[in-house]
Protein 1
Amino acid sequence: MKKIATIFVLIAGLFMLSPSPASAQVVTTPIKVLIVYDAPSPDQYEKLGFAYAIMLRNLMGHFNSTVDLVSIQNYSAGKIESYQATFYLGSYYNNPIPAVFLNDVNATQKTVVWFKYNLWQFAWNTAYNFNTHYGFSFSGLQGLNAPPSSNNPTPGFFDTVSYKGKSMVKYYAYDPASNTVSADPDVGITQIVDATKAQTLVTITNSKTSVQAPYIIRSGNFWYFADLPLSYIGPRDRYLVLCDILHDIFADNQPVSHKALVRLEDVDALVDYGTMKTLSDYLVGKHIPFSIATIPHYMDPLGVYNGGVAEEVPLSQAGTLKRSLNYALARGGKVLMHGYTHQYDSMRNKNTGVSADDFEFWNAVANTPVAEDSTAWALGRLQAGKAEFQNNGYTPFAWETPHYQSSPLTTKAIPQVFKTTYQRAVYYTSDTPNFTLAQGKDFAVGQFFPYVIKQDYYGQWIVPENLGDMEYNISTIDPYSNVVYTWHDLYLNAQYALVVRDGFASFFFHPFWLESSLAPLVTTGFSDFQSIVQGITGLGYTWTDASTLGHP
């Protein structure tokens, strides 16, 4: 049977992590930023605040900035004054805030941004005269309207952030079997008491009660977010509000500019030349530049798609692949490297063990780094794949990690070989993550970006993919392909991405959805592709060559 590549859970755009006006001049010198986070010890969530700090630090990579991260208990008096902006991530309820930090926040004229928890330690301390100073009051937290149950599975909470005409609905899921909630419902409730000092910039609404509250308040140099918009992020989520309003916090005078990107995905030795020709002809006919995420070395070690006989096809022997690439490149396509083999060893990791189906730089079965994991090992594979391209006359302009997940040591190798990546990414709170510890366990967080990140936590320059891709349920012939994500979903994601003033509409598409072998399960692959291209064009995005967005 023809290989059908599988999807990774991150492509649908929802990244889950559980527990619970200044100058209008363009900024030319780096902004010094301090990120302060909760790290209670010993505790099972000791490193969760650090995970959020990494995510926020990644967003800072969009701006001309230098960033330092420090836990709140390690904050030293006067440190705020060395930075133009300080962000405190209140992720742990009632984590003690040192008096030296509160004193500095109260006294500084520098920008301070406070998220979610523990504001009461500042606002209710009479030593700071908070209400008079800042012009707003803090009354407390509100979470779920009632405990959920099988009879009342969705009791409601402050879940809808209104921004630029869009309703950003926070993620919520309830499992009645285990009586567990996957959500981050708590918000800090504030009220303006002096409109000459404080303004509500964004609101949040409890969709069950219709009660509205401030979501973002600004009082001069002090900003307050009612929750932590880095939890349970998605393509229609209040995470986009944070991404956009950072421009206001930094007053960088960023003009409105919206670009679109399209990438043909998982192109390997088994690619169908006809589908590549059809897609290439359509895109060049629309004057749309495009990228081809190519796997240079095909592996099927278990013979899953070759009658039980192991198969290996290097690029030098992949005639149909090279013919497809040459046709696309002659029409404006650009090649990027999508893994070396896009699978790991001879194991099912965790699908078939075949190129494009499986993880390459992460043991997805055990949820650990692979046995050989090291930066040196990863460098060897990266360099081997790049050499295979170059020896066959191709120069990949960027890297894309298979299934968007690799170990920290692998990810640190990537900038040593590729100046540019084109992807989403997973970040860890340790270079050797351990997710099983009772206290101080590590966390992994997946993150997408609505714009270019010039340097992330691992030193990568990232061209964004933020919409996801189309998926069809073909589980009757491939049990690993059972998710449906339509072009309408991508189109809606693109509409939401417009709230970010320099937000992208970037998606990818698997050419095999056009293949006749999938009929009658999939018959609309090409028409759906045309629909999303036309839809994004109609929203006013400008189609852009991804290779022009890379590291200079």
Protein 2
Amino acid sequence: MAPFALLSVSDKNGVAALAEALHRTHGYALLSSGGTAKVLEDAGLPVTRVSEHTGAPEILGGRVKTLHPRVHGGILAKRGDDSHQADLEQQGIPAIDLVVVNLYPFRETVARAEFTWDQAIENIDIGGPAMVRAAAKNHADVAVLTSPDQYTSVLAAMAESAGRVPADLRRRLALEAFQHTAAYDTAISRWMAGEVELESSPWLEAVPLRQTLRYGENPHQKARWFSHPRQGWGGAIQLQGKELSTNNLLDLEAALATVREFGYGPNAVGPAAVVVKHTNPCGVAVGPVVASALTSALDADRVSAFGGIVAINGTVEAAAARELTGLFLECVVAPSFSPEAREILAAKANLRLLELSPDAIAAAGPDHVRSILGGLLVQDLDDQAMTPDQWTVATKRPPTAQEKQDLEFAWRLVRHVRSNAIVVARDGQSLGVGAGQMNRVGSARIALEAAAEKAQGAVLASDGFFPFDDTVRLAASHGITAVIHPGGSLRDGESVKACDELGLAMLLTGRRHFLH
């Protein structure tokens, strides 16, 4: 018996040519319904209509036509399962080896300037997603195509595989099929969320609502927090304090990302503390114990630290807790707080304390997701380990051992500062941070002025290369002795020459860390 291909598409581009190749070149019998069947018949191809195949007419105005055991049994049957094959034989159901389905144009309907609720509802496909998901589930035996963009490559693969779609390609097509139906369902739920007053996510329907926030970045903006329980911030335990706000969460995220440069919890390479204001670190330090690291981080810029967010990579003990009570802060996050620290910090009733375990961080996954108007951007987290052994010395003078240690510390910080980013540091403490300026010299000037006299003998890190020598000369005028940046500018030589002239050492990392 000839293998069966079922074709039922909303987007009919290329479907006749695909069906002709399947039938005439590879010997498939064609099974189709509705408008797709008419397109194939008009192309002179022999087509069995689904209603003939099932013995059941299309009903309810076409709402029900493919939801039938003779369709889904043919798709879902495992070819190597004797009981499945016996069921097919007993019921006289032929196996369907290839499914070509794309869905009703729901997104196109709701994108029109004018449409009714009923028009949108009628363009919610039911039978199509059922067939796509069935074929994708049984991809060990069935190939599923959901887009005309796939037709040419699938036919080419079949030509090289005796008319069969190769197993690895079937698996990839199954993934694309599930992505197709997931995007379709998300479009429907997004539209409905805009029409019905429900607390549901417009984008990530699989992510549950954790809480409705008091407001967004500003009081006139509504905000909701979606998070998987036990994953990332969804696994944080708030021990005390006021309800978290949108800005708290954004700052907490920035503080956590920065402090994790020094490990976190049992994996900490040493005590570290970070103070963040408006998503930029304003004070970062390491120390022999948590309390000393915290004091140094606050001392880096106590003016900016007022009203800030603190992240600590180890247990907060009593000494650190006393330091935290000496300044108005919004939030503190750490792996744990000792009972003595909890008692001390209880006096600051509005201070939000969050206990976030390393397990919750690990469960969050490697993706960094951000929203833009009408869409999402998903990228890898910029959390790759540093590779100092791959850095190169660009200047005649290499950095001293102390300078190299300071440069490594500064390079850990600069990728967590908004671009253009400059960090001035020495002895395990940030001294000045320049963030978010439209030119690199402006950021350098801010960082160096913040460091003031402490810049003498310190180092400077830049998240991007130096296309001119102006930043180097400015740094030298403030007493900076060594700089680190990615390199890669056509005019790197100008900055290197200036360093040699002024006695600075320069390291090139070969990797940039822009943060927008």
Protein 3
Amino acid sequence: MNRSPLAAPRFLAIALILSILPTLVVGAARADDAKHPNIVFILADDMGWNQPGFNGGDSELTPHLDSLASQSVRLTQFYSHSVCAPTRGALLTGRYAFRNWMDWRSEDFGKPSYLKKLGLTLAHNDRGEPTRRIHALDTNERTVAEALQEAGYFTGIVGKWHCGEWLDEHLPMAQGFNHQYGHYAWGVDYYTKTIEHNAPARFAVYDWHRNQQPIQEEGYTTDLIAAEAQRVIASQSADKPFFLYVPFNAVHGPLNDPPRYTDKLDVRQAMLKCLDDAVGKIVAAVDQSDFAQNTLVVFANDNGPVLEEMSKPYRGTKNTTFEGGVRVPCLVRWPGHGDAGSSNDGMMFIADWYTTCVALAGGSHEQPLPVDGLDMTGMLFGGEPSPRDEIIFEVTGSVRLPTIRSGDWKLMGDVLYNIKTDPYETTDVADQHPQVVRRLADRLAEVGRQRPPLGDKPLLMDPPLPYIYGQKESLAPPAWLKQAVDAVRAKQPQQWAPGETPWPQAPVGANAAKQ
């Protein structure tokens, strides 16, 4: 076919454009994929399975959570460890709590009944005063905050840490967080911002900080945490992704009446409604800052409740490995990824969020310590089955019963349940399936041998009763803080009967945590 001299260059140009068009399209897709999502991870504390309306609770108490559920994928087989600190350690590191002894809480190392189970005795300082042995998340661990920092994320924690409260290297800003707000230890008073005891000391310690400096604030901690989270979200830029971890102390004790609702509700209901308000404010902050389309919002809970009536229909409570202690609510919202208002029955464990967040952030999975967390992006956002078939809840050396979930089976001590046919754990079938018991017991023993040595824990908290947590912060506490703490201590019991303590004793057996 004949072409004019001018037609040839035009033809070649068109051909060139057509030849590179697929590359341009693929490149654009990859550029879009490279826009990694912001991650807002909200963690409730001690909430029961059936407390939110989306799991059968009173919808008038949780309208914001129910609204979030309608926009989310609801996970029906999401599991945690059965106590606060182990769950937090697993989330932060992607590793089972026994691997770094986070199945033992820092405060346990000041309680004689817990120490006895470890073969340790109560420590005394050079002056002969009983004090706490220092225990915290190992600084050799790589946290999800550190992994996301490496991937270019701003990282913040607003709320409860519970992975170490004394040495600088054990506090959040040495573990990958750019911003810190809230409390370090197990359960702060919602008004006074004090922890009621520093076992073995029986008196209160102040525990409220911003960027690891004491702060004086009026208000209810649930509301204050929500307000800080709103400020952090509003200060973010679309040019830099962010990871905001919001571990509330609600609805954990002490049972402090909130500043509203108690005229119509009992204290537990009112605390739950305040938590619901707070979650609503955080989600609204994401939406109002135009981050919604590229922000993964997760709402989960750290362990079961203290009352079994809040676990129903499941059996058990916090501090047990019955389903009521370890199966917890979880909502996952990322617009355009997953079917809003749907549920997913795939098995997932709290440690999986570590690996999943690193994957979503485009971070590196290379690290010295192996992880137990699995990448759940396919299950959550790709319609794939869960890659998880096993969860190790506890092994020998924990204060709770060694427990494993493997497929449909769950071995808890020497008791066996089929979770698929008996999710409410009414019938022990160990005698009917001795080969399953043997297999799972062998697996627990195999994994348990991977627990590292504890050592003798020689570092001590000194003074045994500081005014504030954080060794450096305790060196020169401000006058207002000392005055506030002295006022709280003056109202506490000054004497205790022999054998009585303000803290519970170490649990014994499967049902030890019922309160």
